[in-house]
Design a protein that fits this description.
CATH superfamily: Hypothetical Protein Pfu-838710-001
CATH architecture: Beta Barrel
Structural class: mainly beta
Radius of gyration: 17 Å
Helix content: 10-25%
Number of domains: 1
Number of strands: 10
Length: about 170
């Protein structure tokens, strides 16, 4: 299961270039269900994603470079190119729940922001995604100061829907 929340961004973090960065290109063979191919640096994948906004099934299968470029010719819509910065969240904050009293800090040191900076024609779009181990953690997570609108439940921000936009 992929459990993630998505946010637009007010400002980019300082020292952005100090974080690991991946060059991503992805294209969609189908959008319902989502069947995507992706090149991330020198790795290639075919991905199937089930329905859902906050949580959905996701399966990744490795591809070789030749297969990726063969399938890319069959893709519909726009090919999406972006830079992805991986930024660790040092002290994630969460809303209090019955499981964690007010003021309690939940230790999720492995949480990180995947900050996607889109290339044209989608620029200047910037989206921050945070993946979670479970729904409760996702639902109680308090956004970072530099996040803006929570667009998790807005299908327009799914990359598969972006691939269908006309310019």
């Amino acid at each position: 299961m992929e459990i993630e929340r998505k946010f637009t961004v007010k400002t980019l973090p300082v020292n952005l270039e100090s974080y690991p960065c991946h060059i991503i290109e992805q294209a969609y063979l189908n959008t319902d269900p989502v069947v995507r191919i992706r090149r991330e640096d020198d790795a290639f994948y075919l991905t199937y994603k089930g329905k859902g906004l906050l949580a959905r099934e996701e399966y990744n299968l490795p591809l070789n470079e030749e297969s990726y470029y063969h399938l890319r010719e069959k893709a519909d819509g726009n090919i999406i190119s972006k830079k992805r910065y991986v930024i660790p969240i040092e002290e994630p904050q969460f809303k209090p729940t019955s499981m964690s009293p007010a003021g309690a800090r939940i230790d999720h040191a492995s949480l990180s922001v995947e900050l996607d900076i889109f290339e044209p024609p989608f620029a200047p779009l910037v989206i921050a995604e945070v993946e979670f181990p479970d729904k409760e953690t996702a639902e109680t997570f308090l956004p970072l100061d530099w996040f803006s609108q929570d667009v998790t439940n807005d299908p327009a921000y799914h990359n598969s829907n972006l691939s269908c936009q006309t310019f």
